[in-house]
Every structure is written in structure tokens, then in C-alpha cells.
Design a protein that fits this description.
Helices cover about 10% and strands about 35% of the residues. The protein is mainly β. The strands form two sheets. The protein has a four-stranded antiparallel sheet with strand order 1-2-7-6, with no helix packed on it. A three-stranded antiparallel sheet has the order 3-4-5, with no helix packed on it. The protein is rod-shaped. The model has no long low-confidence stretch (mean pLDDT about 80).
Length: about 140
């Protein structure tokens, strides 16, 4: 039996109980990190205990939506729960992506409870060199 007490954790647990688990119409937020790595934008979501088939990723125009559902684990009839702090229900996050990202080529990987999305930087957004044309083809514009 666990006997550790943390007043802030207890307050958070109580608030979660009062608000209830996330639902499809009112999902809970999920933690994430976002950073640029070379020519890719990387977004990582923490989804421990969520199976890959319970994750839904959508992109519409420049809006990325990630939804996931953590379902209760089936327990035997003789199991008596002593402590339950792991949230269940639906989790969701929406991110507005910049026009400089190539949403047609997003890669998604799920490993060890972390969903990682790699979004390439669009070619039109990458720095490029502009060459200056020679003087032979110059024309004067008069108006």
C-alpha cells in the first residue's frame, strides 16, 4: 500500500476527479514539445499507455489536430484498486502550422509512449541564392 502524500498532487487529482475524464466533445490537453531540427519541424506528444490505434492525426489546411484516447486496462474480478492517478479518457491538441511547412509529407512515429511528428520545411521557405542576369539582355522601360 502506498502512503506518500503530496498536497499539490492531491489537489490536482481532486480537480481531475471533479472535471472527469476527457471526452470527444471536451478533451483534456496533452503535453508536447516543438522544435526545429535541420530542415524539419518536430512535434512530440506524451501519450503513455495509449495504443497506436487509439491515436487520430488530421491536417486540414494549416491546422494539425491530434486526438488520443487512453482506455481503462481490463482487470480481473478479484482486483481491488488502491490508487488510481493515471488519467483516462480523450486527449487532444490543435496546432496552427505556418505556411512554410510541407503538410503533404508529415511523418508520424510512435515509440515508448511518445508520438513524434516530423514536418518538412517547404522548399519555397528555404533560403536560396538569387543570381543576377547579365547586361546583354537589358531593356530600358519607358513610360
Amino acid at each position: 500500500m502506498l502512503m506518500r502524500t503530496d498536497p499539490l498532487r492531491e489537489l490536482d487529482r481532486l480537480a481531475q476527479q471533479l472535471m472527469g475524464p476527457g471526452t470527444w466533445s471536451r478533451p483534456s490537453a496533452m503535453p508536447m514539445d516543438a522544435y526545429r531540427e535541420g530542415d524539419e519541424y518536430v512535434v512530440a506528444f506524451d501519450l503513455p499507455g495509449v495504443s497506436a490505434d487509439a491515436i487520430d492525426i488530421d491536417v486540414e489546411r494549416n491546422m494539425l489536430t491530434v486526438k488520443a484516447e487512453r482506455r481503462p486496462v481490463a482487470k480481473a474480478e478479484d482486483v481491488q484498486m488502491e490508487l488510481s492517478e493515471r488519467p483516462l479518457g480523450v486527449f487532444s491538441r490543435q496546432i496552427t502550422l505556418a505556411d512554410t511547412l510541407d503538410t503533404e509529407h508529415i511523418q508520424a512515429d510512435y515509440d515508448a509512449g511518445v508520438l513524434t511528428l516530423r514536418i518538412p520545411i517547404a522548399e519555397r521557405a528555404k533560403p536560396r541564392k538569387i543570381t543576377i542576369g547579365g547586361g546583354a539582355g537589358r531593356r530600358q522601360i519607358s513610360g
